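re: the backbone from monday

yeah here it is again, tokenized this time
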């Protein structure tokens, strides 16, 4: 497959100067893919209004390996400034007749014109999806072409397809959106069949069973599961002490997570083989999951590889056998009527939780007898956070006290990961949105106990606002709900929270002698019209302290972009309520 690409960009703002830094990744293993014929030119206007040109020098083009499969070509376009037009071209040649890259009409900057031309010889049958919401101008015509077949030149009729799209808006990253790829307008092609001149026909991943058959015969996939890994005595001895398939699964899963490390490589295939990964105690995500499947099967469990697309890679299409839409291999275990979805490369996700980065997508189990599609749904677990703190306001305008935070389910994993990988900066979770907040005596418990919530205990101090006779303070602390994420007036993408959420804040704040509460915020209930979000706030004060309880529950996980105006309006009121200040003032002294 030979692809010739030409890109022209006008730099209209200072922040657009980075568009001149070009990076092209390609699959370099065994010279499978080659990027060549690179050229570039920068156009500028001089003081007289004449067009000047500066060519990209060959010496400014650099190639470096990223890993054992992928390399990168990089260059910076010369003499670029605001007002410049840059243009670069290159040819991409692959040793393949099937791997046509997706064509993206849309980008993170506005596109005035995008044209995709493809010439397909008649012997090839491609399944094509046009995933756009704008109207694409599509033209096709027959072209007589010559093909080399078994040493002979034969005349063949090819099909020329031309897709054109104009005036495409930029797609920007928005809070709580899914994968960017799912929203970009694009063309997707995959080879499904070859009709040879001699009349024979070759099916190429034309069905999911055919794809399963091919994968199970692949040396870097199915055949890896037939390797016999040497057992460790500690694992075998531990398995003798547990009963029940679920407990065996958890034991093996935890053993792999504790004793092997993910090397950062993400693919559906093994690159070095599971025996090498087992010996090194390190491997790609696929290799770690192949090791897990091997050990689970040896323990008598029904375990299978499962192709998935992670959250940043996008949703999958279950209708067409597009292998390229998957970027990860995980593990599926059958126990009775239950299916458990495991990722041996994730040290922090317990066996009972669907891994966050594939939640609400579909996975494809690769097995001839038990294979097929499965929905990776979260049926009962949520993000649950409970915050309890007791504090006092000092006469010198400081809130100080102690807090305990419990994180359950999906709220636990990211904090455990942060704590285990960077304990020194863990306090950022609490201090990043508060000026002057200080944490000390921090204790973190239950990181390694999947059945218990993460517990964080600490002492804290925080300056409160003071103005004349008045002090102001907030009780909206340690929940991660300090800033409203939905402040943009418009939104292009859907809102996906992934899981139900539950927040509880309880506590008590004492005020210093000589002060009294000014008018207190009201007790309040706020409910979305569809009851999907509910806030309840209860406050009770006496002469020396205020007690509070706030409950915020999200029962719905997905809102369409069309729901955004209503959601945005609710969020505005929600965060105004959460951040409402409690005011105290000095008591007046009677003469």
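seq for it, each position gets an aa:
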């Amino acid at each position: 497959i030979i692809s010739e690409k030409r890109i022209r960009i006008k730099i209209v703002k200072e922040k657009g100067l980075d568009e001149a830094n070009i990076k092209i990744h390609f699959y370099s293993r065994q010279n499978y893919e080659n990027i060549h014929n690179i050229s570039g030119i920068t156009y500028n206007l001089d003081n007289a209004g004449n067009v000047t040109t500066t060519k990209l020098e060959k010496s400014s083009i650099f190639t470096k390996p990223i890993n054992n499969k992928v390399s990168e070509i990089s260059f910076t376009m010369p003499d670029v400034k605001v007002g410049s037009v840059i243009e670069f071209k290159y040819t991409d040649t692959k040793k393949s007749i099937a791997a046509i890259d997706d064509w993206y009409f849309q980008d993170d900057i506005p596109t005035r014109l995008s044209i995709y031309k493809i010439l397909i010889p008649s012997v090839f049958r491609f399944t094509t999806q046009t995933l756009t919401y704008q109207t694409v101008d599509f033209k096709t015509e027959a072209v007589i072409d010559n093909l080399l077949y078994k040493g002979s030149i034969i005349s063949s009729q090819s099909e020329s397809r031309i897709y054109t799209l104009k005036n495409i808006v930029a797609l920007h990253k928005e809070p709580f959106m899914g994968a960017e790829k799912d929203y970009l307008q694009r063309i997707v092609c995959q080879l499904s069949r070859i009709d040879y001149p001699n009349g024979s026909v070759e099916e190429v991943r034309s069905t999911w069973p055919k794809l399963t058959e091919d994968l199970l015969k692949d040396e870097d996939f199915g055949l890896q599961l037939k390797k016999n890994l040497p057992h460790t005595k500690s694992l075998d001895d531990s398995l003798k002490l547990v009963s029940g398939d679920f407990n065996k699964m958890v034991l093996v899963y935890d053993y792999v997570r504790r004793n092997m490390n993910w090397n950062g490589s993400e693919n559906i295939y093994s690159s070095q083989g599971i025996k090498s990964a087992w010996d090194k105690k390190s491997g790609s995500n696929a290799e770690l999951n192949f090791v897990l499947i091997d050990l689970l099967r040896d323990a008598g469990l029904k375990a299978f590889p499962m192709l998935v697309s992670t959250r940043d890679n996008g949703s999958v299409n279950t209708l067409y056998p597009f292998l390229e839409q998957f970027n990860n291999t995980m593990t599926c275990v059958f126990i009775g009527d239950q299916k458990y979805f495991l990722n041996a490369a994730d040290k922090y996700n317990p066996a009972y939780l669907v891994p966050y980065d594939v939640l609400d997508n579909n996975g494809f189990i690769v097995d001839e007898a038990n294979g097929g599609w499965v929905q990776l749904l979260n049926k009962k677990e949520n993000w649950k956070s409970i915050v309890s703190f007791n504090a006092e306001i000092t006469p010198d305008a400081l809130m100080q006290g102690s807090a305990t935070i419990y994180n359950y389910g999906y709220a636990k994993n990211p904090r455990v990961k942060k704590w285990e990988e960077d304990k020194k900066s863990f306090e950022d979770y609490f201090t990043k949105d508060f000026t002057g907040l200080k944490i000390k005596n921090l204790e973190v418990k239950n990181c390694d106990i999947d059945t218990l919530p993460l517990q964080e205990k600490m002492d804290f101090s925080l300056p409160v606002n003071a103005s004349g006779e008045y002090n102001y303070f907030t009780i909206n602390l340690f929940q991660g709900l300090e800033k409203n994420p939905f402040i943009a007036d418009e939104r292009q993408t859907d809102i996906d929270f992934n899981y139900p959420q539950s927040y509880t804040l309880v506590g008590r704040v004492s005020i210093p002698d000589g002060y009294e509460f000014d008018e207190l915020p009201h007790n309040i209930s706020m409910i979305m019209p569809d009851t999907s979000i509910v806030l309840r706030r209860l406050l009770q004060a006496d002469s020396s302290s205020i007690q509070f309880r706030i409950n915020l529950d999200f029962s719905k996980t997905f809102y369409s972009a069309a729901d955004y105006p209503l959601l945005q309006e609710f969020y505005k009121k929600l965060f105004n309520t959460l951040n409402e200040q409690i005011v105290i003032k000095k008591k007046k002294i009677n003469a």
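The CA atoms of residues 32 and 64 lie 16 Å apart. The longest helix spans residues 245-259.
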